[in-house]
Every structure is written in C-alpha cells, then in structure tokens.
Specification:
This protein is α/β, with parallel strands linked by helices and 292 residues long. The protein is built from ten helices and eleven strands. The structure holds nicotinamide-adenine-dinucleotide (NAD). Nicotinamide-adenine-dinucleotide (NAD) binds at residues 140, 163-166, 168-170, 191-193, 195, 198, 211-214, 232-235, 271-272, 275.
C-alpha cells in the first residue's frame, strides 16, 4: 500500500505556483489577488477560509477576507459580490459555503463574474468543464486530478466508482474521470444516497472516490484487493483522547481499508491540501487571463 501524500504533493505544487507567480511578476504581471467572503461564523468555514488566506501569503498572492454577518440579506451579499466583480485589483472571488439557510447559494454563485470564478462553481465554468473547454475546474476534483497525475497513476480503462453527486465534488469528479485524458479515460459509475447495494459497485471498482460526508462509511468489505481509494470526506467525530475532544476522519474506514489498497489518501493530509492547490492554481490562472 502506498499513501497518496497530500503534504508531499501539495508542497511540490505550491513550489511550482510560487515560481510561476514570480515569473509572472518579473514579466510585468501583478500579484494574483484572491478575495474570500465568509458569511457568519461557522467554525469549519472559518478554518477553511483562514487556511486559504494563509496560503495566499505563503505563495506571494494578495488576499482580502470579507467577513459578513450571518443575517445579511441575499441582495446585500450579491451587492458585495458585485463590488468585488468590479474591483480591478481582485482576480479571484470565492464565497465560502455553506451559506445561511435564507440565502440561495445558486443565486450568489451565479452573481460571481465567471472570469473570477476560481472555485469553478459558476454555471459557465461548469458548462465549459462538461464540454471539455478550458475553464476553472472545481478545486477539489482538480486537486484530485493533480494528485493522480503526480503519482503517474494511469487510470485508463479503470473501473471507477464515485460515491456522491454534489455539484462541487461528486458530479465534476465523475465527468473528469470519464473524459478522454489521463488521469481520466475511466469507466465511471456515480453512486449516491439512492443507490441500491452500493457494495456491489464498490467491490468491482479499481478506483473509489468517496465524497459522502459520513464518517468511515466505506468499510473493508466494500473494497477489492489492490484498489485505489481517494477519500474526500472531512468529518469531525468525538475523541475523548484528544485535547479538543474530537478529531477529523474521512468517509473511509482508513485503518481497515488501507491494507487492501494499492494507493489510498489519508484524512487529514490528503485531498484537503490538494483542494487548496486547485484553488491557488485557478487564482493564478485568473490573474494571467486578465492580463498585465
Ligand atoms: P454533499 O452532502 O453535498 O453530498 C454528499 C453526497 O453523498 C450526496 O450526493 C449523496 O447522494 C451521497 N450520499 C449520502 N449518503 C449516501 C449513502 N449512504 N450512500 C451513497 N451515497 C450517499 O457533500 P459534498 O459537498 O459533496 O462533500 C462530501 C464530503 O466531502 C463531506 O464530508 C465534505 O466535508 C467533504 N469535502 C471535502 C473537501 C476537501 O477538500 N477534502 C472538499 C469538499 C467537500
């Protein structure tokens, strides 16, 4: 079993981004600038946004963090997005999800200038992805593709099972793994909450990508010997042995599944770090597309 090491791969990719950014600036380009909007104070969202801002500093990007109250109206939030759309200094905009229940995430995402849509969630970005046109890929699936590429895992002809059909992970992952490229070129089955006998699908999979949001849901009896397992899940569970009283686990029962696998991602230090890489690569691309 080989661990797909998010620390190693993200370190390598971040070095590349740093160098590319310096070259871009040396040729007269300006620093990429990411603006993040955080609505309310959900602790997980705070942590994700904090990490994105920290990564901007590390990579030599500018960043702006806009903190807005949980009771902001949808119209006011969209007005804030529009200000960033019209701000020439800003290259990329991300609105941290989830949003409070009274705000439609679709309406807010639709308001982002597609040229600044570095999360790759706007319908234009998603449509271009479906058509195989150059675009901002959603950061998590993009990061997973970068990881498979780094380890030179040839997924051609593999039987791939994606578990989950969200717009941000499961659906784009299904598309990317099936398109005519490597990584990709796999025969992909998308499973979801209404799939009957999930195990019948996963047991035949050469590669399983789990994006479910249920702690340790994929167990050893669901995985065939030699499979590649990509664990997207981030779930907090109680753990009285930890000072904080809790810890993070994935959607895969890592301890029992790992011995069966040819490759597996850990949680933490797996896909999460790759997501940041996807976002940062998109932000640099947005800056370059805007021009000098
Ligand atoms: P989501 O809740 O939008 O989607 C979950 C999907 O799982 C749904 O499509 C649903 O059909 C499917 N599902 C639920 N129960 C199931 C079951 N019993 N059997 C089969 N399928 C089932 O979640 P999401 O936004 O796609 O995120 C999934 C997980 O990935 C969460 O834990 C989230 O925190 C994590 N996540 C991690 C990263 C990262 O960077 N590592 C990024 C995004 C999301």
């Amino acid at each position: 079993m080989q661990l797909l090491d998010g620390v190693l791969v993200s370190g390598h990719i971040k070095e590349q981004i740093k160098n590319e950014t310096l070259e871009w600036q040396a040729s007269g380009g300006k620093k990429p600038h990411l603006a993040a909007i955080l609505v309310g104070n959900n602790p997980a969202s705070e942590a994700y946004v904090g990490s994105k801002v920290k990564h901007c500093e590390e990579l030599g990007f500018d960043s702006t963090l806009l903190r807005l109250s949980a009771d902001i109206s949808e119209a006011d939030l969209i007005a804030e997005v529009n200000k960033l759309n019209n701000d020439d200094k800003v290259d990329g905009i991300l609105v941290q999800l989830p949003l409070p229940a009274h705000i439609s995430p679709d309406s807010v995402i639709n308001a982002i200038d597609p040229g600044k849509d570095v999360d790759g969630f706007h319908p234009i970005s998603q449509g271009r992805m479906v058509l195989g046109q150059p675009t901002f890929l959603p950061a998590t699936p993009y990061g997973i593709m970068l990881m498979l590429e780094y380890y030179k895992i040839d997924t051609t002809g593999m039987n791939c099972v994606v578990i989950g059909r969200s717009n941000i992970v499961g659906t784009p992952m299904t598309l990317l793994m099936s398109r005519a490229s490597n990584p990709g070129n796999a025969t992909v089955t998308m499973c979801h909450s209404k799939t009957k006998n999930l195990k019948d699908f996963t047991r035949n999979a050469d590669i399983i990508i789990a994006a479910i949001g249920r702690p340790r849901y994929v167990t050893a009896d669901m995985v065939k010997e030699g499979a590649i397992v990509i664990d997207v899940g981030i779930n907090r569970i109680d753990d009285p042995t930890k000072k904080s009283g809790s810890r993070l686990v994935g959607d895969v029962d890592f301890d029992n599944v790992a011995p069966l696998c040819s490759y597996i991602t850990p949680v933490p230090k797996g896909v999460g770090l790759m997501t940041i890489c996807g976002l940062m690569k998109n932000t640099l691309l947005a800056a370059k597309l805007k021009g000098k």
